[in-house]
Design goal:
- The chain has 14 helices and six strands.
- The protein has a six-stranded parallel beta sheet, sandwiched between helices.
Length: 357
């Protein structure tokens, strides 16, 4: 990532515009009542687009899929389904995220960043395989530094070719959440346990085994600190691709919808390359995993919706999209009311209905 590319992302801070946006929202509230969390969200969207009337077009929900070598140690087998099967279910409307995306007008795209198997062509599948999965981070680098850079370039190319100005990002694949936890643990200087405990129902023996594997990976790569070194050490390919996609999306003043711990890890890495990228992000969640609470806390953020789900990443983004559109509509579609017209007078000669006794 060159300095020239980094400088293309402008911070959204604009006190004059922010005041104008707040005034605009306050005028609506004074007439129709307050709309709670929609109001600051509307202001945020205006700042993202640097406009009093933010408008969104051609939104894309990207599921970035990859396999992870750490799974061979018996961790990360989400729902017991191979990554290739998760991808096929998403492509053939067998997951809720696929149906919700269609209903809400989001263009669902599954990006093959590094699925171990070869996938058959599909209209919604973007084949951008960096490699056939990563190596086991406990025993070796998950990928080479060259592969990490290649993944970032793939993501940049994907975002550069997006026709619209909204990109929702979610990870997919066995081991994705665990590799993201390793990245976030190192970046936050917090125990990896904080990012993997799912909740009170998590079996203690499962947690002990998971921590043993992940702490082994941390020990092997204890010197990895730089963003690209971290990507190489812990993987996966979907993180690298999302990093590149987020950087270019932000440079185009597109809205980035972040759903899940893998997308959070990618955004944190991207922010070390160019800090203003986080200005363009809003956060969603598709499950109640406690590790995600810690990930969101790193951005001092909360999810737009808290629905208590335990679904595939991307589901929360699809459900939050109508809320985002509604917030923007406060600024773009709600007509101003002139004070002089509040006392409505009938036109001359108009029939005025009356109530009879």
């Amino acid at each position: 990532m060159t300095v020239a590319q980094q400088s293309l992302i402008s911070p959204t801070a604009n006190p004059e515009l922010e005041k104008a946006l707040r005034d605009r929202v306050d005028r609506r509230s004074a007439i129709a009542g307050g709309l709670g969390e929609l109001e600051p969200l509307a202001v945020r969207l205006g700042l993202v687009q640097n406009s009093l009337t933010p408008r969104f077009r051609d939104p894309v929900l990207g599921l970035f899929a990859s396999d992870h070598g750490i799974v061979v140690d018996g961790v990360g087998a989400q729902w017991g389904r191979a990554t290739k099967d998760q991808v096929q279910m998403a492509l053939h409307a067998q997951l809720p995220v696929s149906v919700f995306a269609r209903l809400q007008g989001l263009h669902l795209t599954v990006v093959d960043c590094g699925v171990a198997d070869n996938l058959p062509p599909h209209a919604r599948l973007l084949a951008r395989k960096v490699a056939h999965g990563t190596r086991n981070a406990r025993t070796a680098l998950a990928m080479s530094v060259e592969q990490a850079h290649a993944g970032v370039r793939v993501g940049m190319e994907i975002a550069d070719n997006l026709p619209g100005n909204v990109l929702a990002c979610a990870g997919m694949g066995q081991g994705s959440a665990e590799c993201a936890a390793l990245v976030l643990s190192r970046l936050a200087d917090q125990p990896v346990r904080d990012f993997v405990v799912s909740g009170p129902t998590m079996r203690q023996d499962d947690l002990i085994h998971l921590l043993d594997v992940l702490q082994g990976a941390q020990a092997r790569h204890r010197d990895a600190k730089d963003p690209m070194d971290l990507l190489a050490a812990f993987g996966g390919h979907e993180l690298a691709v999302m990093v590149g996609a987020m950087l270019v999306a932000a440079s185009k003043r597109s809205l980035i919808i972040v759903d899940g711990i893998a997308a959070c890890a990618a955004l944190k890495l991207a922010s070390l390359i160019c800090a203003p990228v986080t200005d363009y992000a809003v956060f969603c969640r598709s499950h109640v995993h406690r590790g995600l609470d810690e990930a969101l806390a790193l951005f001092h953020a909360s999810a737009l919706l808290e629905l208590g789900m335990d679904s595939a990443d991307g589901t929360g983004a699809a459900l939050a999209w109508p809320m985002i559109r509604s917030a923007a509509a406060l600024l773009t579609d709600l007509h101003e009311v002139a004070e002089a017209r509040l006392a409505i007078r009938p036109e001359p000669g108009a029939h005025v209905p009356t109530l009879s006794a």
